[in-house]
Amino acid sequence: MVEKRIAGRWAADYVEDGMIVGLGTGSTVQYTLERLAERIAKEKINILGIPSSIATEKVAKALGIPLTSLNEHTHIDITIDGADEVDPELNLIKGGGGALLREKIVAYHSKQVIIVVDQTKMVDLLGLKFELPVEVVPFWNASIINSIEKLGCSSNLRLDKNSLFKTDNMNYIVDCMFHGIEEPEELSADLNAIPGVVENGLFIDMASMVIVGKKDGVEEYSID
Ligand code: 5RP
C-alpha cells in the first residue's frame, strides 16, 4: 500500500547519525527498515537498531542494519513503529502482529516515539472496530479470560492456523472486543492488574508524533 510506504520511509528521515533506534514491527515499519538500510549505505550514517520482534530482527539483519539490545543500551533515542488504531490524543492500540510486549518495552525506553500509519488507522474512539490484543501467560487461560471479560468485553484466544498463536515470548494473545474504549488509561491499568496478564495493547501517552501516509505526502500530528 503506497500510503504505508510513504509514511514508513518519511519517518526514517528523522533518524540522525549516531542514534540508537527502536525498530517497531509490521508492514509499515518494513518500509522504514528499507529506508534506513538505504541511508546507512548511501549517507554512511552510523546507527544501532533495537528490534521489537524476532521478525523485525530477521529483516533488519538481512538488510544490514547493525543491531544492539536494551541490555547494551538502556536508552533509545528514537523509535519508529506502526499501530492498529490512533485516537485524537495519539493514544494507540497495538499488537495486531502480536509484538505488543516488546514494542511497549522499546517505546517506554525511548526519548521519542514516531508512529507510522495510513489514514484507515485514525479513529475517533479506540476499540470500536479493532479488538484490543492482550498478552497472557500460556496456562490457566479460562480463569484469566473470565477476569478480562468482566472488564466489559467478549474475547477470543488468537489462533495461528489451527493452533494457538504464540508470541515471541511464548505467551498467548487474547483479542478483546470492547465496542469502544472510553477510558483507555483506566482499562489498561485494570487489565494489567489481573494476574496472568503480561501486557495489553493500549499505548497511552507514548507517541511523540504520528505520521499518516497519504497518496501525495504525509500529515504529521503531535501533542504539544
Ligand atoms: C504489531 C503492531 C503493528 O505495528 C501494527 O499491527 C501495525 O501493523 P501494520 O503496519 O502492518 O499495519 O502493533 O504488534
CATH architecture of the largest domain: 3-Layer(aba) Sandwich
Instruction: Report how far apart the termini are.
Output: 30 Å
The total beta strand count reads 15
Q: Which band does the percent of strand residues land in?
A: 25-35%
Order of helices and strands: HEHEHEEEHEEHEEEEHEEEE
User: So what's the CATH class of the largest domain?
Assistant: Alpha Beta
Number of domains: 2
Distinct small-molecule ligands in the complex: ribulose-5-phosphate
How would you sum up the global shape?
globular
| Approximate helicity band | 25-40%
- Unreliable spans are none
Could you say what the CATH topology of the largest domain is called? Rossmann fold
How would you characterize the overall build of this protein?
By secondary structure, the chain is α/β, with parallel strands linked by helices. It folds into two domains: 2-122 and 204-216, Rossmann fold; 132-200, ACT domain (Alpha-Beta Plaits, 2-Layer Sandwich). Helix content is 29%, strand content 29%. It contains six helices and 15 strands. The chain has helices at residues 2-12, 27-43, 54-63, 100-108, 141-149, 184-192; strands spanning 20-23, 48-51, 76-81, 85-86, 92-93, 110-118, 132-136, 154-157, 159-160, 163-164, 172-177, 197-200, 202-203, 209-214, 217-222. It has a six-stranded mixed β-sheet, with helices on both faces. Helix 2 links the parallel strand 1 and strand 2 (48-51). It starts with a helix and ends with a strand. The model has no long low-confidence stretch (mean pLDDT 97). The site of ribulose-5-phosphate (5RP) has 17 residues, from helix 2 and helix 4. Ribulose-5-phosphate binds at residues 24-28, 81-84, 94-100, 103.
